[in-house]
């Protein structure tokens, strides 16, 4: 376009190197066999020369969209590893010289190729800092005479990236962080239900990502951007006020109470969080990773039911229990899961019509809220108390008064207000580990249960059933704790498209169903539920 026979550019070389590495990973070959270039502006406006790309001297079909998305995400991954991106060779040289000349005191991290580098008196390995491998730095201490190579300290090692990948049905998201506590949390929270696995952060090439950085400077930067005079909206999100604004196509937000700032790019599925405290950041990253999965599934025709669920391990047949708050959905699921079934969900599930008549069911991972009375009736309070006394814990959202009651052996219900009971908050993986309740990862709807609890009546199968209504589906209105402020569902209602909900309701209406009355007599209630399940 310039009319020149040759064009030289540092930015194009960098993007071209990344491009060749990506294609090598896609094709599972050595990068040396890949020939291809990226030209134009460095960054979002770079142009991939797909038609001239070869692998082993042969033309290849290039996944252009995936490659472009990765090239756009790569700076964020680097920033997650080293805390920032470089301004180029000149900026790096000037920054280093300021330390060499003793003008400032600090550590300078230099981008270097893999291999061995000669330092005065010895040869040391030099690897990029952002990939969980040893790194070297230049440490200027008061004068240039004290310039010396230094190994990574435990503090610096925190900046290396770790990654956890989540998969549910056809949806997937990867959580990346410069603190392993964040990705370990996602691994534990989603592992039993959403096939969570640790992956190599360097191999994350494309797809939805949630990048959580423990970086106070990045939090301050996004927060200042939100407050720079642009239009804002205050939203109640996860019980905290969230100030939301736009920055081009990105959605930016800050939550001062949590000390977390957000930047979401809905078109690419990338969401970056920055904060100074690792625990609230881990909770927020897991929450948004779950919303990313839900957003993908909703766009693919799934819906969200307000239901508990258990699965028969022999054939995947799934019973769904419906009812209003306090009707006994959780009790029904836990009692059946203690008598040969597998627990799929205690409060909600994701569903999709498949084939001509079936409804596929996958879990919605969340901490299960169990009242102190229910825990005692199930005979689990002793196990919970032993767990706490041994130094264990439950989900951090559990109120400390509940922990104190467990330790004291008091199973009297605790109330936050007249309507909301404070409950034990159980991690998904604690069901099999602490309470011997097996978990399921999916199933096929086979029947419906409509429980109701009557403490003074005998448990029994009772006459009369009801049909499913709007209240049995989650929706944007019922998801007021986590509104889709970051555009992950891209306009689809939080409970699924109306057409998907209608089709699911029609198919579930054809399934056998039973209404059951439960009481505080746990053995009798369990017997009635097993009888109803066998009848279905």
Short structural summary:
The chain is α+β, with helices and mostly antiparallel strands. The chain starts with 9 loop residues before the first helix and ends with a helix.
Mean pLDDT: 82
Largest sheet: 9 strands, mixed
Question: Order of strands across the biggest sheet?
Answer: 13-11-12-14-19-18-17-16-15
| Dominant shape | globular
CATH level-1 class of the largest domain: Alpha Beta
- Helix count? 14
Corresponding CATH architecture of the largest domain: 3-Layer(aba) Sandwich
N→C terminal distance = 71 Å
**Strand count:** 32
Assembly type of the shown chains? single chain
Q: What's the structural domain tally?
A: 4
Question: In terms of per-residue confidence, which ranges show pLDDT below 50 for 5 or more consecutive residues?
Answer: 81-86, 111-159
Structure notes:
This protein is 31% helix and 27% strand. The relative contact order is 0.09. Helix 5 packs parallel to helix 7 and helix 10 (381-389) crosses helix 11. The chain has 4 domains: 1-62, L-2-Hydroxyisocaproate Dehydrogenase, Chain A, domain 2 (Alpha-Beta Complex), CATH 3.90.110.10; 89-157, no CATH class; 162-299, no CATH class; 303-366 and 428-535, 3-Layer(aba) Sandwich (Rossmann fold), CATH 3.40.50. A 9-stranded mixed beta sheet has the order 13-11-12-14-19-18-17-16-15, with helices on both faces. Strands 20, 21, 22, 23, 24, 25, 30, 31 and 32 form a 9-stranded mixed beta sheet that branches. The longest helix has 22 residues, at 278-299. It is of the alpha+beta class and 536 residues long.
């Amino acid at each position: 376009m310039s009319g020149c026979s040759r064009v030289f550019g540092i930015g194009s070389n960098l993007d071209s190197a990344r491009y060749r590495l990506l294609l090598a990973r896609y094709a599972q070959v050595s990068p040396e066999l890949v020939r291809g270039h990226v030209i134009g502006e460095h960054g979002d406006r770079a142009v991939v020369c797909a038609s001239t790309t070869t692998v082993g001297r042969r033309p290849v079909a290039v996944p252009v969209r995936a490659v472009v998305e990765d090239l756009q995400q790569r700076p964020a991954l680097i920033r997650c590893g080293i805390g920032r991106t470089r301004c180029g060779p000149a900026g790096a040289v000037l920054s280093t010289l300021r330390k060499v000349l003793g003008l400032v005191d600090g550590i300078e991290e230099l981008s270097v190729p893999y291999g061995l580098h000669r330092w005065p008196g010895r040869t040391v390995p030099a690897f990029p800092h952002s990939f969980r491998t040893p790194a070297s730095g230049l440490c200027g201490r008061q004068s240039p005479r004290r310039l010396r190579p230094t190994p990574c300290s435990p503090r610096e090692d925190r900046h290396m990236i770790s990654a956890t990948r989540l998969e549910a049905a056809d949806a997937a998201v990867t959580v990346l962080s410069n603190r392993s506590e964040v990705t370990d949390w996602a691994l534990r929270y989603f592992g039993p239900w959403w096939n969570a696995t640790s992956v190599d952060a360097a191999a994350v090439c494309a797809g939805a990502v949630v990048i959580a950085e423990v970086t106070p400077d990045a939090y301050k930067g996004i927060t200042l951007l939100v407050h720079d005079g642009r239009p804002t909206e205050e939203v109640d999100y996860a019980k905290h006020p969230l100030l939301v604004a736009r920055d081009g196509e990105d959605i930016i937000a800050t939550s001062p109470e949590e000390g977390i700032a957000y930047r979401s790019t809905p078109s690419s599925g990338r969401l970056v969080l920055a904060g100074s405290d690792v625990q609230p950041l881990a909770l927020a990253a897991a929450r948004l990773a779950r919303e990313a999965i839900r957003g993908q599934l909703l766009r693919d025709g799934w819906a969200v039911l307000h239901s508990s669920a258990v699965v028969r391990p022999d054939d995947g047949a799934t019973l769904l229990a419906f009812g209003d708050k306090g009707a006994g959905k959780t009790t029904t699921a836990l009692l059946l899961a203690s008598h040969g079934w597998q627990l799929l969900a205690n409060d909600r599930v994701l569903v999709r019509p498949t084939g001509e008549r079936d409804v596929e069911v996958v879990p919605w991972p969340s901490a299960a809220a169990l009242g102190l009375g229910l825990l005692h009736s199930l005979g689990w309070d002793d196990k919970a108390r032993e767990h706490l006394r041994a130094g264990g814990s439950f989900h951090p959202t559990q109120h400390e008064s509940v922990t104190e009651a467990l330790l004291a052996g008091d199973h009297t219900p605790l109330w936050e207000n007249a309507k909301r009971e404070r409950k034990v908050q159980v991690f998904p993986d604690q069901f099999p580990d602490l309470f011997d309740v097996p978990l399921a990862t999916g199933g096929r709807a086979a029947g419906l249960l409509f429980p109701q609890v009557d403490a003074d009546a005998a448990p029994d199968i009772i006459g009369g059933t009801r049909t499913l209504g709007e209240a049995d589906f989650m929706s944007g209105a019922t998801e007021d704790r986590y509104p889709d402020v970051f555009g992950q569902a891209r306009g689809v209602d939080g409970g699924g498209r109306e057409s998907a909900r209608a089709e699911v309701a029609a198919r579930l209406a054809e399934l056998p169903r039973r209404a059951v009355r439960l009481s505080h007599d746990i053995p009798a209630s369990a017997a009635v539920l097993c009888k109803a399940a066998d009848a279905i």
